[in-house]
Each structure stands twice: as C-alpha cells, then as structure tokens.
Amino acid sequence: MNKDEKIKILRDLIKIKSVNGNEAKITDYLVKIFENQNIKVQPDYFDENSANFVAEIGEGKGPVLCFEGHQDTVAIGDEKQWEHNPFEAEVVGDNIYGRGAADMKSGLAAAVIALIELNEKERIPGKIKLIATAGEEFGAKGAYRLVESNVLDEVSAMVVGEPTAGRVVHAHSGSLNYRIKSFGKAVHSSIPERGINAITGLNYFINAEQRIFANTPLDPVLGEFKHSITTIKGGSQVNIVPDYAELYGNIRPTMVLGNQKVKEILTKVIKELNEEHKLRLEFEIVHDFFPMSTPAESIFVKQVVKAASENFGSKASLGIINGATDASVYVKKYSKLPVVVLGPDTWKIAHQTDEMTSITSYMNTIETYKKIARLFFE
Predict the structure, then answer these.
(1) ∠ Cα 239 242 247 (to 5°)
(2) Cys bridge to 110: 215, 223, 323, 365, which one at CB 3.0-4.6 A?
(3) pTM of this prediction?
(4) Count of beta carbons in the 10 Å neighbourhood of residue 49
(5) Going from the N-terminus, what domains does the chain have, and what CATH number goes with each?
(6) Which among 351, 315, 339 has a CA at the least distance from the CA of 159?
(7) Residue 69 CA from chain centroid, whole number
(8) Does the keyword Calcium apply (predicted)?
(9) What is the pLDDT of residues 68-120, one digit of tens each?
(10) Is the separation of the CB atoms in 163 and 349 below 8 Å?
C-alpha cells in the first residue's frame, strides 16, 4: 500500500461522523477493506447505530497479539470555532485536521494498515487481532460487550492505539465517576428551621471527601491519587429551602488505592454522615474504570520501546497518563494481560477544536506496529 492510499484511509475515517453511538458506518467501511484483502473480519452490530468488529490474521498456533482502538469520537462543540471543517479531513502541510484525527482514527487506521501489510508479507506463527470498539468516549459499551463475548480469552498482549506521540505508556489510572444524592424537606426560606436543606447534606459530604482523601498513599508508578467534585445541582427557587440536591465526583484510582477500596471508603463515609447528622445521602457508581500497569521491565514493554525507538527517530520514552482507556475494562477480567498504549501525536490535542494528526507521526505508527508484531513473534 503506498503513502497516498494510507492517507486516504485515514481521511475517509475522519470524514465519517462517528460521534459516540454512531460507529456503524466506520465498521462498514473497514469491514469492506478487510474483505477485499481476504482478511477474516467479524462485525458486531448492536443498539441503533453502534458496532464493534474483530479482524484476525495468522496461523493460530502460537501467542496472540492484539491491537485495539475505538471508532467513536467526542462531539465537535461549536463548529464556528473550528478553522478547519471537522469532517473534511483537510490536509495542510504535514497535518490532517478533523474530529478524531488524533483520538483516535489515526491510531485505528495505523493498526488497520499494519494488519494488511503484515498479512501480505509476514508469516505469523500465532494470531494478530485488531479489535475496534464502540462508545469508548462515554461508558465504553463496546469494550464491555467484547469482554462478555470472551473474544479476549486467548489474547497474550495488547497495544491500545490512543495518541501518545510514540511514547510508550505502560500504565494509566482508572476513572471512577459517582453521584451523591441528598434528600431533605422543602419549606419557605423564611422558616428554614422547619425544613431540611438538602444542600447542607452535600456540604457535609464535600468536607468529608476532602478529609478522607487528604493523605492517600502515593503510587510508585502512577503517582498522586486524584479526586474532584465536578458538578453540583440543587434548589429550584431562591426562596425555597431545597428538598433535593446532588453532586457528581470523579476519582482516578491507582494500583495502590484501587476502585474497590475507593468504593468501600465512600460507602463508609456516607453511612457515618447519615448516622451522625441525621442526613439522607445516597451513593451510586456511574462509571467504574480500572487502572492498568504493565511493569516497565517486562519483555513486552521492552519490545514496544525498541519498536518505537526505531521508527520515531529517537529513543522512545516510557510514561503514564491519568486518563482511562478501553483497557480499563479489559483488565477487570484479564488482570495479568500486558497492555501498552501507543499511537500517533499527543493526548494533549485530543478533543480540541481543530484537532489534528501529523502524517509523519501516522506513518511512524504504522511501521512501529509492524515492528512490534515482528518482535513479539521472534
């Protein structure tokens, strides 16, 4: 496949509007490409416009390497703020602009092309799978569906193609979103003593949340434990004591202070606040994504570092991120699965107005993925 053909695949993907929940057209497009290459591919359509797919090459008698990526994007926001049309995949010099250019249609396209070229030129003494998911940007519904299908049972190692600019991310935090509901009793604001202010209940929780997470242990790889109250809603009118209020919070679990322990801590503090202050607070989990960490000294991480170093022009650095990926879902069931995150360009430009990827980084990623496969099967 020549350079122009590789660029065309990426531009075609960017031109397809696949905001979360509308991934089926991406699957349709890529399934046709694989079928034309006589590569085994299995689409899985669900909900109204969502789809996953699994493509596979190799002889099937050895270990299984998996490349993974999501097909959806976040929304574009105010299109008037875009200098480059988010769905035209405009090429300016070395850059391609558009929603999903970095996160992560470039990584997905790179994996597609790597699979095709490996199938043409290499003997694979095992299997290489490409898994593409729906809904990663909100809830990871495609990843959960794949776990339920057991398609990952035979996978030996995984590369997630999120944007890292060739940096080898061997660990990332989890992401736990939760909601606290506070129930009270509404009265006129001139007689607040006869009511129960639901916002006051949230105040007790906010103070407790800051206290209980003030001295959390430092993770030797992922670093500081991060926690934030991000949304508060309460009250309907200025002269009514509110009978309901709620807040949302986000926590970034680590390997040292994981999801289950965090949930136990929050459950305990809600119980104590309700008993001590006669409150009616309720706690629920909204999203529950796990941290992942593959040892830097592991064979797989070293293979990926070598491959990236050869193709990105300098010694690849190891790193971590505090964002979650589809791997957060996979490691719940496959806790020993070696995972790295590696793709074109950088996490910092994802989700932004005039999102872009560089053609150079995209091409480097294709070659890196092919080299990872060769090293993996040596």
Answers:
(1) 130
(2) 365
(3) 0.92
(4) 14
(5) 3-173+290-376 (3.40.630.10), 175-289 (3.30.70.360)
(6) 339
(7) 9
(8) no
(9) 999 999 999 999 999 999 999 999 999 999 999 999 999 999 999 999 999 99
(10) yes
